[in-house]
Each structure stands twice: as C-alpha cells, then as structure tokens.
Amino acid sequence: MLPAFAALTLATAAAGCGGSSSGADTVSPGADAAPAKTGYPLTFDNCGQKVTFAKPPQRVLILNGTSVAEVESFILLGLQKHILANAQSYGVSDEPSMIQAIKSLPTGGLTMNKNFEVPAEQVLAAKPDLVISHWSGGFDAKKGMATREQLAAAGITTLVNPVNCAYGKPTATQAERTRYKNASIESSHDFLRLLGRVFDAQHKAAEVTGELRRRIEAVRARTAGKAPKKILIAYPGMAMMNANGLPAVWTGGVADQVLKAAGGVNSFAGLAPEAVSSINKEQLATAQVDVLVVGAFQPSEDPAAEARKLFAQYPQWQASKTRSFATVADGVFLGPLNAVAVEKLAKAVHGVG
C-alpha cells in the first residue's frame, strides 16, 4: 500500500459532507479554485439534461458501467454514507485498501442483466434520490435500463460522469464528443470536484485533487529527461472486448496520459480507445514493446502467468527478451487512482516512484 494514499484514504473515510447553504447555485467542472459552500438549490446542465439538487442526496444508487471510477470517487471524498446501493466492483485495485472499502458498501441486492447493468425495475424499486452512471448508455431503454426521463418522472435525479456524455448517446453534441475524445487525468479530477459541489464537500474535493495532482507532478519531475519507454497495456481478462479474442489493449485518453506521466509512451500511441476492439495479432507482433503492463480485471486472474504467455507468443518484443513487465488494475482508467498507477509504472519503467 502506498503510504501517502493510505493516509488520504483514512482521512476521507471518516469525513462526512458539509452542511448546505441557501440560495441558487450553478456548477461547471474546472481547475481547482478557492472552494466555497454549495448554495442550494444547485442547478446545472448534465449531458443536455437540467438537474437540480435541493440538498445533498441521501440515497445514491451507482450503476455498473464496467467502471469503478464513480464509487472510488465517493470513497475518496468520504461520501460512503450517502450510498444506498453500489453496483461497481472489480475486486482488484491498484490501491489495495479500495478493495475492502468497496466490498463494505451496500449493494441493495442489485443484480445485473445480460448487458451487465442494473435493470430498470430494480432501480425504480430501490427508490433512490440520485442515480449515477459512468456513461450515457447506462440510461438506455434498449438495453433494459431506466431512462433519465423515466427516472425524472419518478422524482429521481440522474447524473452521468460528464466526460462520458457522448459515450452511449447517439445525439451527443460536438462539444460532448470532443470532451469524450479528450478524456484525461484532469477528467478524473473534474468528477471529484463535481461530487464536491453536489454534496457540499468541495473543501475535501479541493484537498484530494490537489494532493493527487502534486503526486503526479512529483513523478513527472523525476522522470523528466529520461528516454521514454514503449509500453503496451494489455488486459487478458477483458478479451471479450476484442473481436479477435486477444487481450484488450488500451490506448488513448487517460491511459496514454498515465504512461506519459510515468515516463513512457503507449506502443499504440495515436490510436483511439475504440481500437481495443480491432487490434489483431499482426499489430501486436510488430509493436515496439519495451515494457509490458498486464492489467488485472478480476481477483482470479494471475498477471504474472499472463505476462509469461504473452512473452512466449511475442518473443520479438524487447520486453519479452528482458522479462520486463508491471501490473495495474483500475489506475489507468478514468477515476481517482491515476496517481497510484503513475507511481507504480514510473517505478517499474525507470526505477523511480
């Protein structure tokens, strides 16, 4: 466990959210500023939907979205008591304390449908006052989920992680598509700040994002001037995402920023995240790979064994010749653990952390 993160986790786990103040307010994500108390009602646009909070939500349901970004953000801000039911969990994490922290949250008896999401009837039956989705597709009726309009009619507010407005939204605006395409580490911090405003916990959000940024910049300073290594991020447990049955290879967005901060560059730099579905054996065979990063998606996986398999399949990689590999879990995705992944990878790639 990384001491700096552990201390931050312990501090936030015991923290509640602040009180509310009167008066209307609006919100938009952005860089850290001097935090102020939230004025309620709080109203803002979220992916084209006007949402209003009369007070901090008390019964939050977090949809799956094959993500842990949202639930981990709640934990890091000390907002666990507001969670009615959580459907997000990998069972693995770059920060070990997160595993138990997520396990300890109520699940509300939620079960997933064939699309790995909470069906509409379960969401409505739980009677939350806020439903949070990692992506706009979490409210797609065609996949068996409740729509934002359906939930609003039942008096339930909805919130999509803003950077993912265009994800699963056929009618996304150009601005939403651009924001999704340009997802970054700062996008992870934006969501923390947004939760800070919604729950009147903006002082905690500013403290957390400031510390995460400081840690990333500290690693950047230590890797500055070092020749960047070519790094391949592969998730064998996510092979179902690849049309060729290969490990899911991550590139673009947050993943590339994490690698850059750690002193590396993606072996598939320049490809959009959607390339995960189409990368083939020929592309892997010709890729330049100095360091292999094996991603863990489930507790049953053995990253070291998966690394050995990939080394045997692609002996031409420099990483295969030197047996250079590292492991990650959730830290290279959108979410509050990017700093942890940056530190882990910098140590593996350049011997600094």
Structure description:
This protein is α/β, with parallel strands linked by helices and 353 residues long. It has 2 domains: 42-182, Nitrogenase molybdenum iron protein domain (Rossmann fold); 225-350, 3-Layer(aba) Sandwich (Rossmann fold). 36% of the residues lie in helices and 15% in strands. The protein is built from 13 helices and 12 strands. It has helices at residues 3-13, 69-76, 96-103, 120-126, 148-153, 174-181, 185-198, 202-223, 253-261, 281-286, 303-313, 318-322, 338-350; strands at residues 21-25, 39-46, 49-53, 60-62, 83-86, 130-133, 157-160, 229-235, 248-249, 264-266, 291-295, 325-328. Strands 8, 9, 10, 11 and 12 form a 5-stranded mixed β-sheet that branches. Strands 5-4-6-7 form a 4-stranded parallel β-sheet. Strand 6, helix 5 and strand 7 form a beta-alpha-beta unit. Helix 7 (185-198) runs antiparallel to helix 8 (202-223) and helix 8 packs parallel to helix 13. The longest helix has 22 residues, at 202-223. It is globular, with a radius of gyration of 20 Å. The chain starts with a helix and ends with a helix. Mean pLDDT is 91; it is low at 1-7 and 9-30. InterPro entries: ABC_Transporter_SBP (IPR050902), ABC_transptr_periplasmic_BD (IPR002491). This is ABC transporter substrate-binding protein. It holds the Pfam family Peripla_BP_2. Belongs to the bacterial solute-binding protein 8 family. It comes from Actinomadura rudentiformis.
